[in-house]
Amino acid sequence: MMIPLADLVTILPELIVVSVACLLLVLDPITPSHRKDLLAWMSVAALAVCFVVTAGGMGDRVSAFSDLVVVDGYASFWKLLLYVVSGMTILLSIGYLKEERIDLAEFYGFVLLSLTGMMIMVSGADLLVIYLGIELMSISLYVLAGFKRFEAKSIESSAKYFILGAFSSGLLLYGISLIFGVAGSTRLVEIAAAVDARGLDDPLILIALMLVIVGFGFKVAAVPFHMWTPDVYQGAPTSVTAFMAVASKAASFGAFLRVMLEGFGGMKPNWSGLILGVCILTLILGNLVAIVQTNVKRMLAYSSIAHAGYALIGLVVAGWVGTGAGVSAKGVSSMMLYLAVYSFMTLGAFSMVAILRRGGDEGEDLDDFTGLAKRHKGAAFLMLLFMISLAGIPPTAGFIGKFYLFMAAVNAGLTWLAVVGLIFAAVSAFYYLRVVMVMYMREPSPDQESETRLALSPTATVVLALAVAGVVLFGVYPWPLVSLTASASLP
After folding, report:
1. What does DSSP assign to residue 357?
2. pLDDT at residue 329 above 90?
């Protein structure tokens, strides 16, 4: 069977990324250790090429492989964001892997393989295609989570992630099989037609819908499907944790939104209330449990759960019954905007954890940040900036993200939901500003002064500069990103 050239051109970025990933896995064993950085830069170069290719076709909508894959403005937005996040992860990892004595170029190959799965997810117009993308992303992340093979907690995090991930994938696949039995197809447009034909009360469709929500709920770390997040985030290498917290969440939300609106859009009365309940539970648990954490990585893990709750406000607005097309589109675009700014501030926060060292270990405990302002003023200021952005304090990008989400909720008649989000944003300020208090208002012990250092490589400096630029520029001048998300939003 001959594959049309036009179809291959449509997925050219995916072909480039997966080809470079396979090449890295082949070259790694025969590359001298002092040349490993070249393979990392090869990965970054491939991402730059893909960025140019995707940005060049941003305004087009093209289908390929019998409409199983679609490349439109929505998919292109997520891909551009994923390129940036993956590139920053690779740059952060160049120095980090050396510090952790796991400097293997196969790491970059698995990052690119995971990225390929994410790209397939956001471009999938068929549930099985999206499922294949999820599995490629997830299997690569299972390996990356256990990349510190000599540490028990890293192996434990990989095992937990694999077991729970396999369980959620099974539920999602069972939901897809039920949908196929009802609709005779797994394409989103045909699922939407079957939903319209069979009505909102078909029990098989309702069961399938719930299973699909459970499957995606695990990937976005929404309550009650969040149980894997704290242990995996704490045990995985920090650069991997940053990648999971940002790229995996963004791709999963991108695919989740398309499936719910294009496949199950006719069932908004059935799922909007369910998503609303998950949203509120996620906000409550993520924020309240983060308060009692003394490990910064675990605190950021529960923070990531809370931010999934904020992002779900956009999905609630998009699916709320009675809202017009314009209000629904604002829900979609506000969620896209929020996840974009979330990416920069979260990557920045995890980067600070990765470069802070106490002796030979990572400085991931809250006590390791004690008196940081007196030892490393610049590092303390950057952590301060990322913390106030995560808390949503102006004039940072975090404030802009929350502002547009809450405004979308108000426009949809869900003012009370915006108030709930605002209350928990105030709660989150407690645990974010606690890190600031520890850095600026506590005196370091003599041991901390002698043992604490910054493993700041040139590439990590670039990552921090990009994160700061995203937090500050999108906080002061958000209009380019606002207009981009509005134009790329699903109708």
Report:
1. E
2. no
Task: List the structure tokens of 34.
Answer: 């002092």
Q: Return the SS3 of 363.
A: coil
384 has a pLDDT exceeding 80: yes
State phi, psi for 69 to the nearest 5 degrees: -125, 135
pLDDT for position 457: 87
DSSP assignments along 76-116, one per residue: HHHHHHHHHHHHHHHHHHHHHHHHTT---THHHHHHHHHHH
Contact at 8 Å (CB) between 427 and 340?
A: no
- 256, 220 in Cβ contact below 8 A? yes
Are 313 and 431 a contacting pair, CB within 8 Å?
A: no
Amino acid at 351: S
Q: Decide: residue 199, CB within 10 A, 0-12 exposed, 13-18 middle, 19+ buried.
A: exposed
Tokens of 474: 């999108």
SS3 399: helix
Model confidence over 245-280: pLDDT tens digits? 999 999 999 999 999 999 998 888 888 889 999 999
Task: Kindly tell me the burial class for residue 5, based on how many C-beta atoms sit within 10 Å of its own C-beta (0-12, 13-18, 19 or more).
Answer: exposed
Which amino acid is it at 248? S
Is pLDDT larger for residue 326 or for residue 308?
Answer: 308
Q: Tell me the residue type at 381.
A: F
What average pLDDT score do residues 357-363 get?
Answer: 73
pLDDT above 90 for 7: no
Q: Where are the domains of the chain?
A: 269-491
Section 455-478 average pLDDT = 93
- Inter-residue contact 254 to 333 (CB < 8 Å): no
In a 3-state reduction of DSSP, which class is residue 325? helix
For range 322-335, the mean pLDDT: 80
Largest CA distance in the chain: 72
Q: Token pair 């970054």 is at which residue?
A: 44
pLDDT of 451 above 70? no
Residue 356 parent element (H or E): strand 356-358
